[in-house]
Amino acid sequence: MRIISGTTSKSIGEDLSKSLKSQIVDTLIKRFPDGELYIRILDNIQDEDIVLIQNTYPDLNLIELLLMQDAIREAGANKIITIIPYFGYARQDKIFQKGEVISAKSLAKLISINSNQIVTIDPHKEHILDFFSIPASSISAINDLSCYLKDKDLDLILAPDKGAVDRVKNAAKIINCDFDYMEKTRIDGYNIQVKPKNLDVKNKNIAIIDDIISTGGTMAVSINELKKQKAKKIYVSCTHGLFIGDAIRKLNSVKCDEIISTDTILTQFSKVKLANTISRFLKIKKLFD
Ligand code: R5P
Question: Residue 42, exposed/middle/buried by CB under 10 A (0-12, 13-18, 19+)?
Answer without folding.
Answer: exposed
